[in-house]
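Box 3.1. Reading complex inputs
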Amino acid sequence: MPAAAHSAPQPFPYLLLPSYWSSRNRARRREPGDLPRALLFGAVALLVAGSIFYGAFWVTLQLADYAELGDYLIRLGLSWLFLTFLSFLAFSSVVTSLSTFFLSDDLRLLLTAPLAARRLFHARFARTVGQASWMVVVFMAPVLAGVGLARCAPLSFYAVAVLTVVPFVIIPVALGSMVTLGLVNVFPARRARDVLMLMGLIFAMSLVMLMRFLQPERLMQVESMPEVTDFFATLQSPITPMLPSFWAGETLFASLQGGSDFLHAATLWTSALVSVIAAAAAFERWHFTGFSKAQEARKVRVRQWRLLDVVIGTLPLRAVRQQLLVKDLKVFLRDVSQWSQLLLLMALVLVYLYNFRVLDLERIPSMSGVLKNLYAFLNLGMAGFVMATVAVRFVFPMVSAEGPAFWIIRSAPISLRDFLWSKFWTGLIPVLLLSECLTIASNELLGVDPFLKRVAAVTIVFMAFALVGLATGLGARYPRFAADNPTQVAGSYGGVAFMILAVMFVIVTIVLVGWPSSVYLFQRFRRTPPSSMQQALMAGSFVAAALISIGTFWFGMRTGIRALEDMDRTPS
Amino acid sequence: MIAVTGLVKQYGTFTAVNGVTLEVKPGQIHGFLGPNGAGKTTTIRMIAGLLKPTAGHIVVNGHDLAVEPEAAKASLGFIPDRPFIYEKLTAGEFLTFHAGLYGIADAGITPRIREMLDLFELGRWRDELVESFSHGMKQRLVMSAAFLHRPRAVLVDEPMVGLDPRGARLIKDVFRRMADQGVAILMSTHTLEVAQEMCDLVSIILKGQIIASGTVADLRQQAGSADDQLTPLFLKLTGGSGLQEIDEII
């Protein structure tokens, strides 16, 4: 049998074809829920992009009134914007390149093919640039469009924007990829991924807290205009002019003024070129060693969590449920990508509580009491949305998280009802504790009426049962056993359906609880007891809220149990 | 031809493969046997270019894998134990892409793809997404890809896993025909009947080292056994059947 005649190798974009073909095939074959999901996400994306555009447009327009100071602030603002994106890109590229260069499944296919190392590098690098930077580009486009339109910038500004953003994203991605290359050659890849994941979340957590504790709302006060310049100026440092963010900001600012800044544009492009050449050389030299290491050393020290066995062993649960609980908790605690997200959640909770602490309601003394109670309802609504978000991210994917191992549950002598109930309790306790603490603490900080505190505390219990029940049930009805990670499950058709139902449920509950509470407070303010008709309607409203919660919970769990029992295919 | 000399692979202090030397000549099917964790897959992955050896040399069809990796891989076909295929590509698209990887995606590739799909009984699935395939069908698609570029040497890791009897028969016939046309095949397997039926030579690896090598008759001689079957021989060479202990436990 003659060997096949080999033609000249295809250029590196050929290696990106499977991604393109896959996307095309995915788009051609519609799956149930594609349309509502596309509409929902499309609408949200348009709304966000529109808001960003409008915000950038408005701010730039306002700054036009301040002549030279305005120009200075736009210049600083652009530099600051690029600096923020630069840090995001640097981190994102380190994480992304770990997957694209070392952990991606198709590497096993590509590395056995007769591909030159440099061709493989270019293809994977292009993919890394795309994956690590699309979010930045999508966010930056409406900002730059807003700034450009507000300043009536020439068309060349938009062309320069494209030509600036391209090298601007390439530089941090090339450097980030080289950092990953170094890390993987030192640590086992899977361990490096965990470390990076944790670092990323701590980074995000610190950023959220830092941004909040800087109290940006101070900048909205007219009397603090000098502080605005100080605020931006603190973001400048001697090393800033050495960063691509500065070069990009300067290039764009010059173009915005109708001029050009070839020095900074050339610095950007040459740096991008040099960084790609350096990265290509480094990957050619060390990629295979790193990839080979990534296949090895799966052995990591595992925490046994024996205390968990002991504690759960004392719970008044049947042995089967105890074992399911132990399994779920251990799997969760051993997966860094899972538990580390709790850190981010904690940061958001702290910021949330901090907002209530710094809320200055006493500035309007006559309205203080009314505002406090109004905020209490807003707070209840927010707690509901927080619960829905936590539930869709952590509770909804719990059945799908069984993945291909679900056959173990299906073939074991346990009822699927027991299985789903175990998932429910595992999800309920943390969600209930989180939202109850959040509501009690924030109401305490606000100093709301004791009656409202009690109403809110009880409502949270009902809402937690309903939302966790609904998330557990719909998670079982629309499982995604083949999903790579829980985020993918949360973004599936079932996840979106859950969020829509959950938001509707929260709104209805707030209305049903809010109306009687406000009537009660109003009557007390007027020092007249509510009429018996009002009392009956108030009681009816509270009962209706409770019934809707119970109904939602019951519907969710019943749907889930039935779906599991009727499931005719088990992943294997 | 595949020639491996003094191959070593260490994971930290653990030596998974320890000085493996073997040669698969053109037209030979060489069985690579051993218990779980003996080092079969690690050896095969090193030859395929997926793992970097700690020491030793691998030469494929005259090309040293460390020196000329592209030339070595161009004449090699690899069939892994757990096949990765892009789930959202059709079988036809996957093979077209594969042809491009091996530099043979010219105008004449379409009949070759059809030929391979027909050979592995996947012709009517050409335009179906891989995600809808059963494990056995995916396995056959990977084999179509492995033979698409007419390799002179083929590495196969556990070829029969997930195949139905008809599929298994088909694969055996294809491998035999390929070998008859001069392709060197190194095949790791747990199925001793398959090894006995198909392989011209057999090497047994245990704890990273080849403990026996030759024809089934040679192995019988090495083990000092009169048994015609490979299974008792294999058990004897790799540490006994353990049946007595099982009886005691049960």
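In summary: The two ends of chain B are 48 Å apart (CA to CA).
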